[in-house]
Amino acid sequence: MEEMKEYIEVAEKSVACCRDMLSQEQEKRRALLGNDQKRLEAVLKNQQAAVMKLDSLEKRRLAAQEKLGLGGKSAEEVLAALPQGGQKDRLAELFGEMSGSCRELRELNKTALGIARENLRLMEQLTGGIPQGQAGLYTRSRQTDARGSFAGGFEEKI
Q1: 102 by DSSP, 3-state: which?
Q2: Whole-structure pTM value
Q3: Mean pLDDT for the chain?
C-alpha cells in the first residue's frame, strides 16, 4: 500500500514543519521582548517560508488522502476508516501532535501579538503617534504590511 506510506510520510513532514514553526514562534517572542527588530524581521521571513512549506505539504497530504479514497474526510474520519494496526496508530500519533502544535502555535501567536501591541502602544506614547511610513495594521481578520499589501493569516493556513 504505497499510497498509505506516502500519506504517513507527508504527515511526518508536516509535524516536523509544525515543530519548526513552534521554535520560530518562540524566537519571535524573544525578539519582541528584546525589542530586536533585525532578529524579528529574520524570524518573520522564516515564518513566512515555513507557512508556504506547510501549505505545500497540506496540498500533498490532501492529494495522498484522495488517492487512498478518503478525500474530504477529517482526521477522525480517516482514522475510523483504517483497520487496527501500526499505520492507524502512527497516524493517530501524528494527527494528535499536529493538533497540539496548532493549539500551541495559536497561543504563542496570541501572546506575541499582545507583546507587539503593547510595544506599539508604548512607541505611540513616546512619539505621539505612529511614525511616518509605518502605518501597517494587523487585525485578527486581515493583515496588511507597511505597504498595505495583504498577508495570509496563519489561522487560514492551518
Answers
A1: helix
A2: 0.71
A3: 83
Residue 150 neighbours by CB under 8 Å, 6+ apart: 142, 143, 144
Residue 138 pLDDT > 70: no
Tally the C-alpha atoms within 13 A of residue 84's C-alpha that lie toward its C-beta.
Answer: 0
Q: Does residue 136 lie in a domain region?
A: no
pLDDT above 90 (res 20)? yes
State the CATH number of the domain containing residue 28: 1.20.58
Contact call for residues 79 and 46 (beta carbons, < 8 A): no
Number of separate domains in the chain: 1
Query: Residue 158 pLDDT > 70, yes or no?
Result: no
Task: Compute the average pLDDT of residues 56-62.
Answer: 94
In a domain, 37, yes or no: yes
Residue 148 domain-assigned? no
**72 within a domain of the structure (yes/no):** yes
Q: Look up cell 506575541; give the residue.
A: 112
Q: Which amino acid is at 80?
A: A
CA distance 30 to 34: 6
